[in-house]
Amino acid sequence: MDINQRIFLAATGNSLARAEYRNNHWIVTNPLKETWINRMVANSTNHQIVYAATQHKGILRSQDAGLTWTSIGMAHLPVKSIAIDPASPRTIYAGCKPVSLFVSYDGGGSWEELEAMRKRKQFWWFSPADPPGVTPYVSGLAVSPEDPDVLLAGIEVGALMRSEDGGRTWTKHLRGGQRDCHSLKFHPFSGQWAYEGGGGGVSFSQDGGRTWRKSKDGLGSKYGWMVAPDPGQPDLWYLSASEMPKLLRGEFDPPAHQDGKANAHIYRKAGDEPWVQLSGGLPEPLDDMAYDLATIPENPGYLFAGLANGDVWYTGDYGDVWEKLPFSLGGIHTSMIVI
Questions:
Q1: Cα angle for residues 117, 212, 45 (degrees, 5° grid)
Q2: Which terminus of the chain is more exposed, N or C, with fewer CB under 10 A?
Q3: Residue 126: pLDDT above 70?
């Protein structure tokens, strides 16, 4: 794979950064300023089309790989998560704060609420990132690549839930899943495998999200963040994680969110083997959290890690050897995609 043919989009915390290789060098621009982006996702059949879920501007769409953006609605709520149906990319799901779920079947032209999500809310769900009493939100969404009616949703902090009817009804919390959901994904080509990173570590499913198991062998107690499966091997997957936070004077202050002091690592799990902490050129530990891990569906073995300080590291051999790309995105705090 030629890295120079890829485009990198990252949410910096208050803008969008875009890196593209032109005229024999990397050029970093900021097509969106004063915009807090919570999550981005690319159309599965046309990677020029990218959607951004934002805190104050609803959902934005780009049809030129992130150069220009237009609003396609949902500006009345903070949109915290977004997912596209791989089989029908015009079907888009938006998870919001407070807990609610919306869907568009026409590529963002119109939206309707799937009210079962709001009704599922429990009184004890909360957000550790906000003051006590603030309502939680839908922090993770994933659509099965094999059955478009099967959806997974994670609540921060509340539950991991599953729907078998396109979000019309939902299960209760699935035992074995992370209640404090930070990331949630299906394998891109296997609807049986699903993965979740959360405040309590990491969990996975091998039956389409029906049942879940926590995975700690070789990992121990860690504050999990982003999961990423290798596109060629569902049982080979990665996790970014830091040390478990301590509760100090009633304050919740995870090292993961302390730029320059994250004390984080990237881990790999292969089959039934225990988790392995990756090095191979990576800083040890990572002083800045790897807030996103990105893979390329057509290129197994490649993994990109976007760090809070704006650095992007990549490996082409399943994590054994890493190299830092020769540009900085300024900061990667919620989302990065590679197209």
A1: 65
A2: N
A3: no
